[in-house]
Design brief:
Layout (H helix, E strand, L loop, with lengths): L3 E2 L10 E2 L10 E2 L2 E2 L1 E2 L10 H14 L9 H20 L14 E6 L2 H16 L5 E5 L8 H10 L2 E5 L9 H9 L3 E7 L11 H10 L3 E5 L11 H4 L3 E5 L10 E6 H6 L10 E4 L4 E3 L13 H17 L1 H18 L6 E4 L10 E6 L4 H10 L2 E2 L1 E3 L4 H7 L4 E5 L6 H18 L1
Parallel strand pairs: 5-17, 7-8, 7-9, 9-10, 10-11
Antiparallel strand pairs: 1-2, 3-4, 6-12, 11-12, 13-14, 15-16, 16-19, 18-19
Helix pairs in contact: 1-9, 2-9, 3-4, 10-13, 11-13
The chain binds pyridoxal-5'-phosphate (PLP).
The site of pyridoxal-5'-phosphate has 13 residues, from α3.
Length: about 425
């Protein structure tokens, strides 16, 4: 059954009606229906993703790139077919309108954390040295900070950060000033912040970075599942994202990388499948993308992610964005009704992805999340793997509500009711 896509009406700006595709939403907790507002941590899965994976495992399972029998060829085509569809979903297989633009290669990783580590290890070790600088930003997830810390410490390079301003935004002027120093080799930044929700001006930033002869690494974990993302137009040298936040399974991530850079890089992990030939004392490397996919890859997971992007594509990403933008605007409107609640990040739904982080005076974020949980409302509390940003914001932690295609305004209402009830307990 194709997902239901309704036409936008004046009564409801919501464009999607897909809750029936997500069996988990029928669950109840202590008599309360599940209200899942933690999609930024991981998305729920439509039944067809699980079915695609189980059908693969039950009917087409074999290892890939090894067998010559028909079953193995089916597995090969399931795995590499998923790669092709995932690349097309993010615009990577589309011929570039820009003659000078180089090709991108799509590599499967375990998650976006591994995708960023791959670049830090394999590109960073070869290209960053003493006297060089790596630039990150104050709004990054630890996955886009710690690999650069380790690289810079090992190579004697300096790690600097673009600041987050009072509105939760980065400054292009500061980026220009940093690049003008002439020592920046690589700039790593997020497409959408997992705490502030800020949507960064990625294409503008990658153009400036490229003009300064530096390499860009974009963390697309909170962007690809929620809005149209065309990696070719964005112009990043490396763009990573993670399957489990994009309706797919855990255990699979994606790195789109500029082919010419990947060709010059040494492997990240070594072993089976990533080699062309091996002698007792030496080895040569396989072609892309396999040079960066050592060992048996996540085959069923690739099939699941392939099914997830097929599903999203059927829904149409502009509609996905419109749906989630409307819910975000509704959250921004309703959350301030809770006494003492302060939101962080841009206050304009056009400037942010589908998540809102907040604090409530007199309540610890963990208490907020626990009380909400008792009403069946799932939100996240903590530092969201962004401790430096928490320090920048002057808070130890926040609560965070994040939406997906399966949410509806009633979920936001349930959150506000739960927060108001929790506020009364603490008052
Ligand atoms: C912006 C951002 N980057 C990176 C990650 C890490 O994702 P994963 O754990 O799937 O590698 C997350 C997950 O929370 C995220 O929100």
């Amino acid at each position: 059954m194709p997902p239901v896509v309704s036409t936008e009406t004046s009564e409801s700006p919501l464009t999607l009606d897909v809750r029936g595709d997500f069996p988990i939403l029928a669950r109840t907790f202590a008599g309360h229906p599940l209200v899942y507002l933690d999609t930024a941590a991981t998305s729920q899965k439509p039944a067809r993703v699980v079915q695609a994976m189980s059908e693969h495992l039950l009917e087409h399972n074999a290892n890939v790139h090894r067998g010559v029998y028909e079953l193995a060829l089916e597995a090969d085509s399931a795995y590499d077919g998923a790669r092709a569809r995932i690349a097309a979903f993010t615009g990577v297989s589309r011929p570039s309108p820009d003659e000078a633009a180089e090709r991108l290669t799509t590599i499967f990783t375990k998650n976006v954390t591994e995708a960023i580590n791959l670049v830090a290890f394999a590109w960073g070790r070869q290209n960053v040295g003493a006297g060089d600088a790596v630039l990150s930003t104050q709004m990054e997830h630890h996955a886009n900070i710690v690999p650069w810390q380790v690289l810079c410490r090992e190579r004697g390079a300096e790690l600097r950060y673009l600041e987050v301003d009072e509105r939760g935004e980065l400054s292009q002027q500061q980026l220009d000033a940093e690049l003008a120093r002439g020592d920046v080799k690589l700039v790593a930044f997020t497409h959408v912040s997992n705490v502030l929700g800020t949507i960064n001006a990625v294409a503008e930033m990658t153009a400036r970075i490229r003009a300064a002869d530096a390499v860009s690494v974009v963390d697309g974990a909170q962007a690809v599942p929620h809005m149209p993302v065309d990696v070719v137009s964005i112009g990043a040298d490396f763009y990573g994202w993670t399957g489990h936040k994009a309706l797919g399974p855990t255990g699979i991530g994606v790195l789109h990388g500029r082919t010419s850079l990947l060709e010059r890089m040494e492997p990240f992990l070594t072993g089976g499948d990533m080699i062309a030939s091996v002698d007792f004392h030496s080895a040569t490397w396989n072609e892309l993308p396999w040079k960066f996919e050592a060992g048996t890859p996540p085959i069923a997971e690739a099939v699941g992610l392939g099914a997830a992007v097929d599903y999203l594509q059927q829904l149409e990403m502009p509609r996905v964005r419109a749906h989630e933008r409307a819910l975000t605007a509704y959250m921004l409107e309703r959350l301030p009704e809770v006494p003492g609640l302060r939101m962080v990040g841009p206050l304009d739904a056009d400037r942010r992805g589908g998540l809102v982080s907040f604090t409530i005076d007199g309540m610890h974020p963990h208490d907020i999340a626990e009380l909400a949980g008792r009403a069946g409302v799932c939100i996240r509390a903590g530092h969201h793997c962004a401790q430096p940003l928490m320090r920048r914001l002057g808070v130890g932690a926040t609560a965070r509500a994040s939406v997906g295609i399966y949410n509806e305004p009633a979920d936001v209402d349930a959150l506000v009711t739960a927060l108001q009830a929790g506020r009364k307990i603490f008052a």
